[in-house]
Amino acid sequence: MSHRILGRTGLQVTPLTLGTLNLGHATAEHHETSRQVIHTALDAGINVIDTADSYFQGQSEEVIGEVLAERGARDDVLLATKFFRPKGGPLRQGGTRRWIFQAVELSLRRLRTDYIDIYQSHRPDELTDIDETLGALTDLVSQGKIRYFGTSTFEAHQLVEAQLVALLRHRERPATEQPPYSILVRGAERAVLPVAEQYGIGVLSWSPLAAGWLSGSLTRSGEEHAVQSWSQRLRKQPERTNLTLEENQRKLAAVGRLSALADEAGLTLIELAIAFVLHHRAVSSAIVGPRTADHLRAALSAPEAGLDDAVLDAIDEIVPPGSALIERDQGHTPLALQDAGRRRWAGHPNPAIGRNTA
Fold first, then answer.
1. What angle separates helix 269-279 from helix 246-264, to the nearest 10 degrees?
2. What mean pLDDT, rounded, does the chain reach?
3. Is 265 within a domain?
4. How many independent structural domains does the chain possess?
5. How far apart are CA 79 and CA 67, in angstroms?
6. Rg of the chain, C-alpha, whole Å
7. pLDDT-based confidence at 356, cuts 50/70/90?
8. Is the pLDDT score of 17 beyond 60?
């Protein structure tokens, strides 16, 4: 498999990153399937594995650590994990120094390693000063517990703020960003990807198959496994997968047009979708999150799939650049939009803010 440079780090990464959101050991069957996926990725030459302390309550990290230890492959893999998600109380979450120092030790133990290559903030912590987070992560670099650190699903202004605060306060700068990016979710093209390119931030984009919408299963609805898989998702996320909803009907229509375009180009829909993401000049690697080894094998040919200008122009007609068919698919709703009090003077939870003291 070919390699690309990850931002300004100089690290050579494969165009596919193994995402492990679906891997763990909830059952013996799940454990074995997860092991097979990791072995398949390593056998294919993939050299980046991305996980998080929240995936299956840490089980994902445990299975990765198990397989890498068995294979003696730790030094051949860039291991990326994340902190931030709540882990059992108000002091066990976010981007505070206190939690970061605890979370990294727990992840190191589960991963069976003494260092993490890329340690990432799973989401922006809008309640914690970014300088506190950067200071804690910089200290972990100095201690040798992490090599680099990065972010996930940050907005463009948050990426810029982190870079500038790091420079002003003499911190290490975030080296990577993980934005959601697919043909159906192109919001990152407006500012996040240009900012990443401008500042030399390596991009490991997530969900290139748009949470399964571009996997081809919806265009092969007669296949039993596809129907079962989509039925399971419908129970977990009905607003995202209920095909009777008008907004999902629009996505389904777009998927149908993209499937036809892939056929005309001699590609599978998976190849078209991943190749599109990798075609953006700011993207170093696309994170694929297979449930089985067969799902992963279906994606392995995508980096070699060529997309000419005619195909790219046709994609732009189906989903315009910089847009998303459904806004919530962008992956993160800023706190300013979640909390009405942050948009209005009245009723602000902090009495020192929103009060005329003149």
1. 90
2. 90
3. no
4. 1
5. 13
6. 21
7. very low
8. yes
pLDDT in tens, 247-285: 888 899 999 999 999 999 999 999 999 999 999 999 999
Confidence (pTM): 0.90
Q: Yes or no: say if 252 and 240 are a contact pair by the CB < 8 Å rule.
A: no
The residue type at 347? G
The CATH number that applies at residue 178 is 3.20.20.100
Active-site residue set: 55
Domain coverage including residue 82? 4-211+278-306+319-342
Instruction: Give me 236's structure tokens.
Output: 């977990």
